[in-house]
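User: For my dataset I need records formatted as: sequence, then structure tokens, nothing else. Please produce one.
Assistant:
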Amino acid sequence: MVAGILINILCTNIASALKLPFYFDCIGTIAAAITAGFLPGVLVGFFTNVFVYGINTYVLGANDDMTLYYSVVSVLIAIVAATFAQKKYFKMVSAKMLIPIAGFVLLGGGLGSVITWGLFGNTMGEELASSMAGKIYLNFAHNAFVAQLLAGLIVDIPDKIISTILAFLIYKFYPKKFKPTRDRIDLAAIAKRGFSLSAKIILSVTLIFGLAATVVTIVSFQQFRKTLTDAEAEYAKDTAKYAASLIDGNMVDEYLRIRENADNYYIINKNLKLIWSSSDRIKYLYVYQFQEDGAHVVFDVDTEEVKAHDTGDVIPVDPSLKDYLEDMLAGREIPAVPSNDEYGWLICGYAPIYDYRGKCKAYVGVDVSMPNVGDVERTFTFKITTVLMGFFITVLTLSVYLAKRFIVSPVNSLAKIAGEFAYNDDEARKETLDSFKEVEIKTGDEIEHLYNALAKTTRDTVNYITESQHKNEAISTFQSGMISVMADLVESRDKSTGTHIKNTSRYVEIICDQLIKEGLYPDVVNKAYKDNVVASAPMHDIGKIKISDTILNKPGRFTDEEFAIMKTHSAEGAKIIASVKKTVESDVLKENYLGEAENMAHYHHEKWNGQGYPDGLKGEEIPLSARIMAVADVFDALVAERVYKPGMPFDKAMGIIKESAGEHFDPVIVKAFVDAEDKIRAVTAKIH
């Protein structure tokens, strides 16, 4: 994949430096796809665009983000290449290769031209195709988009033919011993057996990403339009205020009465004309006095499209001002008003003119034209859509690959072995055990734990069956239940969880003892409460069973995405315990032991000031047991040694707990914790 990205960048730069009429930007993408399959090809295509964007923007300072928007073309070319490679179209040079080449041309020249049109409008295309597009436009198409599309397709034909041949040569001369097994997507098999796990994953990722992308696009589009409109509205208002500052409010009635004979009439009219002509954005500029019978024209600037009204004319109030007419009659400020009628799409800003007594005598109106907004919005929509599409296809391909490698294939292997279980004689039982040894699943996650648990259970079962062929129904039911439990509740995978559970349980016990001793929270904390909380404390991190090993045991700080995933363990832990509660008939056990276990699992990362997670509870909204566990949990995390950090000195850790009282922690719990310092120190000493 690294080689593919470098080939793309190198060939593109060579073609540019030699001023060749080719792009050569997908040779590495096609080579990776036909050599190694869907995922490598897609990643090469996507990250080539990302890296080129990064180099141009952050290294060369070119501020060029265009390459990002063509990433969807690159990843689709990779998918086409991998699909036809799977069908053996690239086994040798033949006429069959023209079919994938045609696909590359349609994507590179066709879809690429559509994206160019979406970004730049009716241009003559990019540099390589612009000359041909101009000739097609003048002599044949007479439509800018069609000319651009045809030119893009024609120019792309030799480019994709040469690129495919070079990629094929790379594939042929690539050492066989280094060629990976291409990942396959067997669509026929999926269609035959219905929705497979892979198909469900594809559907799920597509629906989730599609929904998220739709929401993001809609919200972004609305915010973009609002920002654009607000900017124009502010400009209209500011221009109107400036024009209003040039007009003496004491003279408005005089202008209406004697018109051009009034002092400074021509000067003001000239100044308003200068303001109007100063910017193409200003379409109309006028001064009206609003009365019950309509708008009385004080000044109106002539335009090429619309002849100005004469001073003193009374015209109907524009319908867009209907909701603000009462305010204008009263001389109050009004916001900018959008208008979309025969005069076009306008943003109308109004500024009142006051006389020496502070009475509003008229309003300056400035209508700002927004004819280019549609083009800007189209470009914005294309940009966000193309980037999201490229990213989506890359994520989808990666999801399918990972799901197939680490979930689908191992589960199918286990299902195959499970379906072939046979215990009727010694030979069959031996074959069952041998099948487990041959599979040897090494995924490093819950699947591997499931495999080990199932293998161990199978061995134990085989041994047990060997000793006794006749089990009663109760034993059989118990055995099935054990297999299910061991499959679902895999042992903790966090390398630090074992000691962490013991330490936090001891700290929780010490805090509860101190609360009882000092009579704090006497209505809640007693011997029975303490026993329930201490007994359920080890389950506070049970939700980490849902977190992958890669994140759970990462030796360093989490990224934002990893931390977001890690934070889900609290809600997941509560779900696990809640599901257990449903199977328990004892109400006492549900409410006391399991109830506190659910509280601690769910809320031990909430903060006293409401800045925690997952629900942002604050103060005594947080269950008491969770507030106790929060102190114990953080303190142990501070003093305990981890693979990525040494343990913090006791006094420093205790200082952090004290400083966090009233912010992170319940001050009462911190007091009890600090008051029991000697006992806490004794536990910490055993850790080190």
